[in-house]
Amino acid sequence: MKKHNFSAGPSILPQEVLQQASQAVIDYNNEGLSLIEISHRSKAFVDIMEQARALVIELLGLEGKGYKALFLQGGASTQFLMTAMNLLETKAGYVNTGAWSGKAIKEAQKVGNIVEIASSSDANFNYIPKGFEVPSDLDYLHITSNNTIFGTQFKSFPTTSVPLVCDMSSDIFSRAIDYSKFDLIYAGAQKNMGPAGTTLVVVKEDILGKVTRNIPSILDYQKHIGAGSMFNTPPVFAVYTSMLTLEWLKKEGGLEAIEKENEKKATLMYSEIDLNPLFKGFAATEDRSPMNATFNLVNENLKETFDTMLKEAGISGVNGHRSVGGYRASMYNALPLASVQALVEVMSELENKA
Ligand SMILES: *Cc1c(COP(=O)(O)O)cnc(C)c1O
Asked: What percent of the chain has pLDDT over 70?
């Protein structure tokens, strides 16, 4: 039986994407060759790469606005360093909203001068700082739109006169916002787009080429753009599967349609957390993430019973991150509403039992 997959990442992909991707590994397009045994310079793969890059720009509403999409390697973790290498000259600002922003700060500090503009570390990152001033003398401001571990999300974004850089690893393609507010977006594929192995970068070209540093080629966005996102052999399977997910998303109606679905799932999940006296939510109500819902049992003694019930209902991947504890239900684009219904049912059954 297929399980209800609430994994935080790598995470659920549409069933039809898994089927198409697995078929392509055996025989791509009935060409008698596997997708993963053909040249990345073949027309077949160049077309896939170009289609994937174009879909990214189209779905984000960034056509004709000077942006380029790249499928790179090294995970979002490499972007912590790469953004700084390409953009940091004198000083950059970071908003610290949890573990991943902390890591981004740590890497950027190896490159240059970093100022923490705002932080929610005073409350174990259970909220998003608001109302902070962004100095105008920064090279850029870096934020993390969705905090996968803590379950918080920026609902609106700081207004800045400096380039805005955003780690969107866990909520890219989940909502219809104005993406042209951002000058550089990056996201590991494995949360909401595809398998692990590729990292999406969407960059406004005119912010590049302004630092005096001699950037190593593999870390230089301009080199990757010049090479059509094929500076070195790209992760062909991860790019192809991401392309299939983007095609699926377009067919589903794009970001506006998926946002509605994600809202339905989040409303169902959070109303159970709020109304069921056995559970309490972790994140501040106004900042709760529709992607990752974090919650705890009020009475830890019920843990064994609850975990057994979850297992019996085929619910997988809801254990919280070690730094928060409790539970985390990740509800990425491909997770059906029925899976959230199944989880909510188990939570209310527990209430009836207790
Ligand atoms: C998972 C995650 C990362 C790390 O991604 P890798 O691809 O493993 O390097 C970074 N930022 C956020 C917000 C994440 O959720």
From this structure: 100
The structure tokens listed for 348 are 């209310």
Q: How far apart are CA 153 and CA 227, in angstroms?
A: 34
**Distance in Å, CA 119 to ligand 1 centroid:** 19
Rounded distance from Cα 78 to ligand 1 centre (Å): 10
- To the query of whether residue 100 is one of the catalytic residues in this protein, the response is yes
Helix (H, G, I), strand (E, B) or coil at 151: coil
In terms of pLDDT, which residue wins out, 2 or 316? 316
Question: Is 301 marked within a binding site?
Answer: no
The closest alpha carbon to 273, from 174, 209, 348, belongs to 348
Homologous superfamily assigned to 254-353: Aspartate Aminotransferase, domain 1 (3.90.1150.10)
CATH number of this structure's domain 15-251: 3.40.640.10
Model pLDDT for residues 205-259, shown as the tens digit of each residue: 999 999 999 999 999 999 999 999 999 999 999 999 999 999 999 999 999 999 9
- Rg for the chain, CA atoms, rounded: 21
Domain boundaries in the chain?
15-251, 254-353
Interval 80-100: pLDDT, tens: 999 999 999 999 999 999 999
Report whether 328 belongs to an annotated binding site: no
List, chain by chain if needed, residues with CB within 6 Å of any ligand 1 atom: 9, 75-77, 100, 144, 148, 167, 169-170, 188, 191
Q: If you search the block for the tokens 């799932």, which residue do you land on?
A: 265
The residue from 68, 100, 183, 287 that is catalytic is: 100
